[in-house]
Specification:
By secondary structure, the chain is of the alpha/beta class. It contains 11 helices and 10 strands. The strands form 3 sheets. The chain has a 5-stranded parallel β-sheet with strand order 6-2-1-7-8. The chain binds S-adenosylmethionine.
Length: 269
Amino acid sequence: MTLATSDFDYIRHAVQRESAIVLEPGKEYLVESRLAPLARQIGAESISGLVGRLQRGEPRLLDKVVDAMTTNETSFFRDNYPFDMLRTKVLPELVAQSANRHIDVWCGASSSGQEPYTIAMVMQEVLPSSFTSSLLATDISEEMLFRTREGRYSQLEVNRGLPVTMLVKHFDKVGTDWQVKPALRSTVKTRAVNLSQPFPVLGAFDVVFLRNVLIYFNPPTKAAVLQRVRQVLRPGGYLFLGGAESTLTIDDAWERVVHDRATAYRPRG
Ligand SMILES: C[S@@+](CC[C@H](N)C(=O)[O-])C[C@H]1O[C@@H](n2cnc3c(N)ncnc32)[C@H](O)[C@@H]1O
């Protein structure tokens, strides 16, 4: 399937309107490789056919296109350092300061669940038994949220970053895959949240993970998302971003907190 410029333009504008994901000219190959399987799956003869159906407003087709265009790359304990900081600084500090013995964590853009389950494992390790907690995992992709609820991962996926001790403790072998045990799975709640839109009522959080997603947005969207995150973060709370992301030059209402080799952010003042 080859992609006409007009089809590429239609798709990149539609995807950006819906999800804020920016597809610059030059990304035609990406759109083509991601949408050709979807076109086949829905019985369209070409990507042009798919675009025609999008233009006619076929229900839910734009969601599928956005889903196909998201990059879901993730792994357990991705980059390690943020989770060391969570374990050795952030959670102990929040525990010491907590008046009501409760911690709320939000993992936005949680992809297939490796990141929220990593957080859940660390929380279980660190939080005293007298504490309660909540852990919300959100993504724009329903397919990724379904995978998160299932908590089922291939050998290859668990080999990427998950220490064997944690695999044995928190996972059951299911056929050739590994599934998060029900006890840990029940601590992660999922919800569809599009970061590029005003947030639905989510509550307030002590820690927010929003890693490796701002990179797909343009500067005004990054700033708007960071501003919305500030409104749901409790005073004294922490924000973790991806290794290639920063609040610097985007939203100066944040201060950097460096701990060993990890960086987190807190609202100033
Ligand atoms: C590269 S993954 C990052 C996963 C995980 N946070 C990590 O760092 O390993 C990016 C995720 O962002 C999600 N995403 C992209 N645009 C989004 C949006 N507008 N709102 C919410 N999630 C979005 C994608 O569906 C994908 O799961």
